[in-house]
Amino acid sequence: MFGKIKRVFSKFIEKASAFLGAREKLDEILEDFKFSLIESDVAYECAEYIISSLQEEIERDNIRNKEELVRKIRELIISLFWEAGNLDIFEEAQMHKPYKIVFLGVNGVGKTTTIAKLALAYREKGYKPLMVAADTFRAGAQEQLKLHGQRTGIPVFMGKYGADPAAIAFDAIRYAENRGYDVVLIDTAGRMHTDIDLVNELKKLVRVSKPHRKILVVDALTGNDAIEQAKFFDEYIGVDGVIVTKVDAYEQGGVPLSIVYAIRKPIIMIGVGQEYKDLKPFNIDEFVNKILPGVY
Ligand SMILES: Nc1nc2c(ncn2[C@@H]2O[C@H](COP(=O)(O)OP(=O)(O)OP(=O)(O)O)[C@@H](O)[C@H]2O)c(=O)[nH]1
Ligand SMILES: [Mg+2]
Hints:
Elements: H1 3-18, H2 23-39, H3 44-59, H4 66-83, E1 99-104, H5 111-124, E2 129-133, H6 141-152, E3 156-158, H7 165-178, E4 183-187, H8 196-209, E5 213-219, H9 224-236, E6 241-245, H10 255-263, E7 267-271, E8 279-281, H11 284-291
Parallel strand pairs: 1-4, 1-5, 2-3, 2-4, 5-6, 6-7
Antiparallel strand pairs: 7-8
Helix pairs in contact: 1-2, 2-3, 3-4, 5-6, 7-8, 9-10
Guanosine-5'-triphosphate binds at residues 105, 107-113, 135, 138, 141, 190, 245-246, 248-249, 271-274, 278.
């Protein structure tokens, strides 16, 4: 997990700290570092930001040795995540009944699986969750959620194929209110994110169901595309937080950082496998410790 970006940072730190006094050579090292970051899925603008911030600190003579270099990089990354704020969807659920979340994302990223994982996490914390199959577009989508319902014992509100997803979400919320559900997790259709019908459908669903939060699910393995999806959904629908899936198989490492830089919204959780237990809160310190060498 995140092996590649870790190697990129380590290599840069080793090289750069040997040449802190030699500006010309250092600029060359920084330029190489920028491209290595880009190869690790760090979006171009985000890589530029990291490089220019470091250049500025070096110019101001704030980085004089390896220790200071590591500390600056660490501060830089942590502050990016902090600026995006944080979102605790478990804590928030205590304040609304039912607490409604709509899940967004293109096809195959792991929305349905993530909803099932989350529903279980809610139940473990004592909430009564309802999963809603508002994906009436793709054949098999309803059955897929139903199967998760059967495996987990968590109820699923189903719609008919071809039915209006907004109407299903609306009915599901009524149903949840009448039966005392605490949390309503609404699964939506995943299509190409640029599909204009999908955008209109999602806008309507959001207008009608008035979710407390709109959570975007992205697949880390899609790299730069995940960042484009984040920008797109944030611009057209609005995103409150992001769940990054398939991190268990993800070596590059740049996606979480780039998403936060691009849309300034928090990564709230990461998917780390196909089992129901494989969903973890995203922890900034843990992430930074994974991708950077320790402070000496
Ligand atoms: N390794 C790994 N696989 C995952 C993770 N999350 C989801 N998957 C797998 O990704 C595949 C697609 O997951 P789905 O939940 O069906 O994705 P979706 O976004 O609902 O897809 P559509 O309904 O087609 O839009 C499944 O095989 C999941 O088991 C994860 O964190 N790690
Ligand atoms: Mg699905």
